[in-house]
Write a sequence for this structure.
């Protein structure tokens, strides 16, 4: 395979100077193919997926996500999103595109008084359960939509399951 590099959707390489601009504009980590951590950062749980992104932005917070999206839009770059879960087809990665990696953003903020929770994009089901168990909350999980708090609606609720956290 040719050396991966960040390209626009038309196939035009994105210059190092343009990439340097996003590197200085985010609090998180910007990982290029030449960086030592690149191979580990591009791996996902499904080892049969072997894609080579042109750039990975491992976001530290919402402001980094905004900057990464603006960068991709301004330079017409294909974007894929890596959250906390997985997708068997490997859609969290793209060859020569930009991966917006949310895996470091795993916080779950629960407000018991309002019966609400805010969940960052990198949170896994284990993180949810850890926050909800002490409150004895119930939640539903629709098989293709992921966890949902009580009172939420799901188009495939009949295909999912309901679990008591008590």
């Amino acid at each position: 395979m040719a050396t991966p590099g960040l390209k626009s959707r038309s196939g035009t390489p994105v210059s190092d100077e343009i990439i340097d601009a996003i590197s200085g504009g985010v609090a998180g980590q910007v990982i290029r193919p030449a960086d030592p951590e690149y191979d580990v950062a591009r791996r996902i749980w499904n080892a049969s997926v072997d894609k080579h992104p042109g750039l990975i932005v491992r976001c530290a917070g919402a402001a980094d996500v905004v900057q990464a999206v603006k960068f991709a839009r301004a330079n017409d770059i294909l974007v894929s999103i890596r959250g906390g879960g997985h997708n068997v087809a490997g859609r969290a990665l793209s060859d020569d595109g930009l991966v917006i990696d949310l895996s470091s953003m795993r916080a779950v903020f629960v407000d018991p008084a309002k019966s609400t929770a805010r969940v960052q994009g990198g949170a896994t089901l284990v993180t949810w359960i850890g926050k909800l168990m002490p409150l004895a909350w119930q939640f539903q999980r629709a098989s293709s939509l992921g966890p949902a708090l009580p009172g939420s609606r799901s188009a495939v609720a009949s295909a999912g399951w309901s679990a008591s956290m008590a």
Q: What stands out?
A: Residues 16-101 form a domain with the Uridine Diphospho-n-acetylenolpyruvylglucosamine Reductase; domain 2 fold (CATH 3.30.43.10). The longest strand covers residues 138-142. The chain has two domains: 16-101, 108-164. The beta strands are 29-31, 55-58, 79-82, 98-101, 108-111, 116-119, 138-142, 146-148, 161-164.
